[in-house]
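dude i think i finally got it to work??
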Amino acid sequence: ESTRLKLKGSKTKIVYDFAAYFNHSNLAALVFKSQGIEVVKVPSIVPLTAHLSGVIADALMLSTPYQLDEFQYFSQFMRVGRSQQAYPKHAEYLQKYRGQSIPSVLNCIGYYSHASWIRSKEKHVESQFGLPLQEEILVKYLSSFCLRSNLKLLIFTHPRERKIQNRIEVENHYKRLVEPYVEHQIYFDELPSSEIFELAEIGVGTMSSVLFERLLCGFKTLFFTENMKSFPIPNSDIKSICAIDLITLERLLQSALGINERDFFRQKSIATYKYSSDFYSQPDDV
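look at this
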C-alpha cells in the first residue's frame, strides 16, 4: 500500500522489469498497472518456462523464436497485452559475430556445461531442464562419439566450475566421465563461452542460455533433451535440433558434421534463430 501511495502522482509512464524471474515481479506489475504505469518485462534468452510460468505485463519482450512459440502456446496462462521482439539483453558478444563469417574449428565437438552436478551439491537444481545424470550421460556419450569418430572434445565449463577453488574437483569430475585416449580439453580460461563459439564445430548441451546464444550467432547447436518435461514444447521448429535419446543424438551429430552452418540452419528449419533473420527486424508490436 505504501508503494502504491508513493507512485500516486508519479510522472513515470513505463517500467522495464529485467528481473521478471523474482517471485514478487507479478505483484509489482499489478501495483504499477493500478497507477497507470505500463509494465514491460524483459526475460533472459532461456525458455520462458524456466522462470515465467505465469506472467502479468503490458508487454513481454521476446528474444528468441522459441519464446514466441511459448508465448503463443501458453497464452491462456499469461496476462500480457502484447509481445515485442528484440535481441536479448546482455548480448555484447554479438558485436564479434554480427555481419561477418568466422569459421569454426572443424572436427571439434563442444560440450556446454550447465554445472548441474555443482548445482545439486548446492541444492539449486533446475529439474525441469534435466538433472545431473543427464549431463553425465551426455559427456560420456560425446566422449565415446569423439573417440569413434576421431574428433576432439572441448568442454566449456560453466562459471560455477571455473572458480579457482573448484578447479581440481572439476578436473576429477570430467576425468571420471571422459574415456581414456579421447583428445579433449577442459576450458578454464577467462573469455566467456559466448565469445569463443568458433572453437567448436558443433555445440551440444542439455539446457543453458549459452546454447541459445550460440544459435543466435549462427553456429551449429544441438540440445540433449532426454527426460526433460517442459522442453521443447510441441510443434516448435527447435525440435529438429533436440535429441530425446542417444540414438537421435548420434543421428543429429552425424548429419551436422557433414554440412556448413548455412545449410544446417536451413535444413533444420531454424534460420529464424540467427541474428540476421526477420524475427529481429519485425515491427515492435506482434
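Strands lie at 14-17, 38-41, 56-62, 79-85, 108-112, 152-156, 184-187, 202-205, 221-224, 242-243.
im so relieved honestly
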